[in-house]
Amino acid sequence: MSAAQKHGGAVGGEPPSESFSSDDDELPKYNNESQDDVPLLAGEEVLIFLPKDVNYVCPYLGLIPGKITVTNYKLMFHGVTKSESPFVLELPLCTISRVEKAGGATASAKSSEGKNPYGIEILCKDIRSIRFTMKPDNHKRHQIMDELNKYCFPITSKLPFFAHHYKEVYPEDVKGWNVYSVKNEFSRQGISNSGDGWRFTKINTKYDMCETYPHILVVPATATDDDLKHVAQFRSKGRIPVLSWIHPDSQATITRGAQPLVGISNKRSREDERYLKLVLDANPHAHKLLIFDARPQANALANVALGGGYEKNDAYQNTELNFCDIHNIHVMRESLRKLQDICFLPTSSLSKNWHSMLDQTQWLHHIKAILTTASRIAYQVECTKASVFVHCSDGWDRTSQLTSLSMIMLDSYYRTIEGFEVLIEKEWLSFGHKFSQRIGHGDKNHSDAERSPVFVQFIDCVYQITQQFPAAFEFNENFLVTILDHLYSCLFGTFLCNNDRERRRDVRPRTVSLWSMVNVHREDYLNALYSPTYNHHVLIPVASMRHIDLWLGYYCRWNAVFKSQEPVAVRHKELLNVREYLKKKVEELERKVAEKRETEKVSGAEIPAVSVTAHT
């Protein structure tokens, strides 16, 4: 599989820093009628091939003539720039948010030099905006738009996702769908059925108690299944507090759930109050359960009027409630929209007031708020041995952000490639983050209020931590970008559906896991600076605006102004080769020292001990 196929991005023809415009006659004509240079995946079929009379409107290179191929998975444009270097743009169809007509059949539109030339405009979920111009008299626009609207939005068109057609076969030992096992992961953390304060329960095996929770849960050992049923009646969507992570030494825990259903009548649940006491009692070192409510306090109060609420101290004794001021999905969606507007500004605007415009998006302020709270949770668990309970409204958005980030800070296993896969499967997929609704997979309704970049923010926060601790993570930036690319691509079944129940029933038996591809191409995602000496070290990042930067390698990667002169992935591979070479040299030197020491012992002489340590 090529890099383009894996990442679903533009390859070839890197644009120079200076843009230019030109009309169709000044550029080389693309008259290759062949489709042979379009790489097809297993199960992919060509739907439309337009070999001529198409121009890609590049913001930096001007008009690039070429040809368009539309398959049941992607749109691919092959063009030639003025310097005759190839230009390839590859766009998975499900990454597209909407397709619109550009220009009309007027005289000005017929000219490629017009202000609004005839063609199509494509707006993408990965914040790209792509435009093609074409001749209005060849009647191809209508045909292309019909096919794009059909295959970009399979839910609306009542078609299966391409993930169901993708027939790539990966080795069984790469552990795609089987990378995460509930019992294996909690056994790694030290949980067993022999007691020790926590136990596995199969009360949700048929998803009867909570349809958005995993089928196996870890709960306080002293809580019966009847207790769990009563608690579920008092927690939003039946999402009771359950274990996410336990400290190997102090037994301090991170648990997660949803808001209590207090309402304006100030309802109470003795079972729920007692249950949180059992969560606290499972940690022998803690005398108070710290509750981190991810919402701003005003939002939590507003939820009371809607039947929700928060834990009040008079009802929940031995608890301490902390509001975290992380805003809701609607605020985050608007913030990303503003960020999108500034990522493709011309060079003149970038040099004038780009930083002030970035600040006005509030995107980095939201990232700071999430990192600040996750750092507080990690500090409390590690340094004060406190047990923490995290929730927001329903416990599947901000809650997942906070539990997973704090676990990355506390547990070095989640900073490896395998561990990070397990973390996403566990805290996001199995605990019911609504990927289908938040991303809008296959749905033509681009203005759906349920869409929000919650998972994108999480990956962004991970990137911020890697920048502060560049040697603490086994994976590199390319790994994070690849995850986000396939969050939208629908090539794999990993991020389809809204919960574990739907995924197990409809997706896992008939699709390929993203982790299968990642684990086969593992070398592409290794961090050349990774050092195992960070293992078992707790990372507490500095969550201040001075240490948080816009992730240019993701948001601005399509902007030629921000493009690095040398691909980072190439440099990473070179460093990995150097590291492997030096590691072998160290091993060889250690072997020679050991042999010399044995020789000296045989001859009766003593030589001082020498230790050569490889810092890899």
Offer a few descriptive terms:
PH-domain like, alpha+beta, 3 domains, globular, Protein-Tyrosine Phosphatase, Chain A, seven-stranded antiparallel sheet, five-stranded mixed sheet, 20 helices, 616 residues
How would you explain this protein's 3D organization?
The chain has helices at 3-7, 107-110, 140-151, 154-157, 182-188, 225-232, 270-281, 297-305, 329-342, 347-361, 363-383, 398-410, 417-430, 435-439, 454-468, 477-489, 500-506, 514-520, 552-555, 568-603; strands at residues 46-58, 62-71, 74-80, 86-92, 96-102, 119-124, 129-134, 198-201, 217-220, 242-246, 253-256, 289-293, 319-323, 387-391. It is α+β, with helices and mostly antiparallel strands and 616 residues long. It has 3 domains: 3-152, PH-domain like (Roll); 180-562, Protein-Tyrosine Phosphatase, Chain A (Alpha-Beta Complex); 568-616, no CATH class. The strands form 3 sheets. The protein has a 7-stranded antiparallel β-sheet with strand order 4-3-2-1-7-6-5. It has a 5-stranded mixed β-sheet with strand order 10-11-14-12-13, sandwiched between helices. A hairpin with a 6-residue loop joins strand 10 (242-246) and strand 11. The longest helix is centred in the last third of the chain and has 36 residues, at 568-603.
